[in-house]
């Protein structure tokens, strides 16, 4: 078990290193840099000033020097200074993290609350109208663009209820009720979309398990349907579901970008898009690495969970 | 899949044709949702192919006298803020979404498939390294990756296709690889190898055809996602540039501004996107159920 | 009671009745103190409060409350001109030596937000830095308006409360440029780079907190040098990236004031319908849609081709199609009555593209193109560049359609915002659909930035020595009537040369809730954001 964990950790670290190279390169490939953007806000370009600023920010150095410098900074815990705001990146990102984490957590919660029960019902009542309806409902969520869903929700709220999202973040300690309202709708919107995959996997996993011999044996032995399902089938069906929940949590970031923008929540995802548009390299690089670490860690945790629960996986490919 | 049990003197070709048709009908009856999805995709394909015929106006012609008009006999789905006919733009948008979606899906899936095939078959260190590289690509969130790529390559149709195809590669590789792994150990492959058949031949002649099923499933599943990413990129201003009408771009800033006065600006393109993705997802689900024997019955 | 007494009593009662029953006019409402206004921002501040290092309204609007200028355009007067300039940090000023020297007598007892006293040292520091004097102790990282100060020979501070600007040649416009929101005074004891994260000014409001990407909060400066001002207790500027959310917010009353340049005619109509009591004021933003054409390379080095483009674009139809009527046609400077110097509509007739009959204009354009060898059958293929932002793209799409009708086939090329100015400055384009905003409605600021030989913002590379002399002549002209006439001639000449055909001047429908008083938009969005006179009747 120990070698397994160490092996996975080393692989994870190498993967992160690779990712750092990819994100570093991609960013530099994008045309224009912070200096170009600064000049565009100034409405003109001056070559002398441009050279001076590039030197000040250190982006006139060769790429490999900049890359190594970045690695060195990460290892010493220095997350660099934002090109746009001229302030330590961590200082700017720190108040944004709890917002995104809360949104992600609530969305996953809703996704599970919607996805698992509908998956179970759908499996138990396979091929009935209820099954079809649930599958259509779940798939519809997956098919709608996240930004469109948000736009339509807000349009409806404004038109029929004259309600708009709160203009700035309200912490739960300031006003719990307003905070709940602020987070409820976007979490539901994101959670609805995430629930589709969870519902699907729950359904297929449960169906697969229900065909297993030991389930049939239990039925043959005379145990009633519901007990069979809850005691045996569901427990074993949950493994792939847990995997998917972990994966969905990591993939939430994509949906969170547009949701935070449309619902005006000051989170990390929305800030990331702005940072990309501004070519704010330190912010983008560190945020993307942060997301990558979260993704890899969650993958690792799920793998370990798998390894603990299912001994077949531990030593196989 | 000929009809068994009854001897009918039908020429071979006709038998095959009726066989295919019967299979289709059987599929539709068994998987009505899948058939509905297939119908939606067919509708989209026809719309894309015959856009010029189906349009009622020139999709890029502006009309200062008829801005933000509602649904009418003249403009079936109304006009936008520049007076352009929304119905015609949606019809042409189907072409853009389909072309970009299919091209990027195929590009990503084929490249990924080849990588997965080789990686799975060769195995060993090559496989391990390839897997880690793919992990890296897959670790970055799809939207962020497409966003950065699109900014890197610039707004042009072919660049958007490349940008969307890149995140598909690792997913495709993974699916094909696992399929290859399960087939590789099978007896007849062992037999072929012991007979001295070259590896490349084994890979492409024997293993590849058996991955077609999962490949088709993968493609239809990714198509929906590709269409969504294209729409999101266009919405953010990084996708297909003017003057090609894109469903995603029709929903961006201009639409949002006039949403309250003219909600049809927001509703119709969004419904179009949703239907297209919905159709591809339904079809993909049904195909997966039918073609992937491991999941049959679920 | 005696008759006299009755008479007196009646008169008193009548007088009393007259006073009590007389209708009170809103002008005689006396301002109340207190209240916080919620303001709108459509993006976060680009370089914090460093007004001198940017040219965008996104910085000027939220940063103005923190600063003071030497002089400012009177916030309460709608039309800006030399007559409406009032003193801020300068109590009095006087032109000397036939508009060659400008002497400012500064206010005493003014304090910076950190408690340090304001003196002439700060004025000398700021303007030496702006004009990039060789002995200037500080340097701006980016200095977009350097040209405004190119005529300043020296800035002297003979004593603590006097500052003298010595000019190379007479320039009455200098005072107008100093009165723009773009010209605050920086503190000599604060490094200019600090203004990118915080604001040490002398202005009516102090920065309380800047939550990046979210909001900027100001509190009243209780030590402000004008007693009783500001009226408001505070200001809060909210960053809202989504247009529909911004509109919904002001409609719902969550925001009190719209962002200058944000509200189009259609949006205004929507708002008025939903909330009839909103106060909506149309005004010219001093922002013009225009066409830039690279005169260094063919085909636009040819005057006929340029004129064809100008004739082809139906200005009035563009105003309708792209702005739903929320713009006005005009030449190089904002047209009357919206602006001070521009040509009125009747004077525009006869200039290319402004003819009343669009069909005739297009016929003329086709003829010009035929003379150069192009037609609908054999069109001139060009690439029209524009910024990848909705407002630019809409305008460009319309232009593409217009050009198609006269034998010019243009494909639209969208350029990422980060690249736009660099691309245009390099001349890496053929023809472009552009937007230009000018600080004050002033000929000097406009001409020298956009049409002068060698100016980095002269994207068309238009260079005409004769016209440059005309610029200089009007700049030094002291007689206002003569100056207006000279400017009219220049505008006509620029359009005849198709230097940078102006398509329209955008009108903003500035929206405030009725309890917001004394916030009067001017004919330039960059100059009325001080918020000193604004009060809330809640």
3D structure, described in words:
The complex is a heterotrimer of chains A (317), B (298) and C (538). With 317 residues, chain A is mainly alpha-helical. Chain A contains 14 helices and no strands. Helix content of chain A is 79%, strand content 0%. Chain B is mainly alpha-helical and 298 residues long. Chain B has twelve helices and no strands. The two termini of chain B are 22 Å apart. The N terminus of chain B is likely disordered. Chain C is α+β, with helices and mostly antiparallel strands. Chain C contains 15 helices and 18 strands. In chain C, the strands form five sheets. A six-stranded mixed beta sheet of chain C has the order 12-16-11-15-13-14. Chain C has a four-stranded mixed beta sheet with strand order 1-10-9-8, with no helix packed on it. In chain C, strand 6 and strand 7 form a beta hairpin. Chains in contact: A-B, A-C, B-C. The interface between A and B is large, with 51 and 48 residues.
Overview in brief:
The complex is a heterotrimer of chains A (317), B (298) and C (538). Chain A is mostly helical and 317 residues long. In chain A, 79% of the residues lie in helices and 0% in strands.
Major β-sheet profile of chain B: none
What order do the SSEs of chain B take from the amino end to the carboxyl end, as H and E? HHHHHHHHHHHH
Please mark out the parts of chain B with pLDDT under 50 across 5 or more consecutive residues, or reply none.
Answer: 1-10
Helix proportion of chain B: over 70%
Instruction: Provide mean pLDDT of chain C, rounded.
Output: 90
The major β-sheet of chain C equals: 6 strands, mixed
Uncertain parts of chain C? 23-27
By helix and strand content of chain C, what is the structural category? alpha+beta
Q: Give the terminus-to-terminus CA distance of chain B.
A: 22 Å
Global Rg of chain B: 23 Å
What is the count of β-strands of chain C? 18
Radius of gyration of chain C: 25 Å
Structure characteristics:
heterotrimer, B: 298 residues, mainly alpha, 12 helices, C: 538 residues, alpha+beta, six-stranded mixed sheet, four-stranded mixed sheet, globular
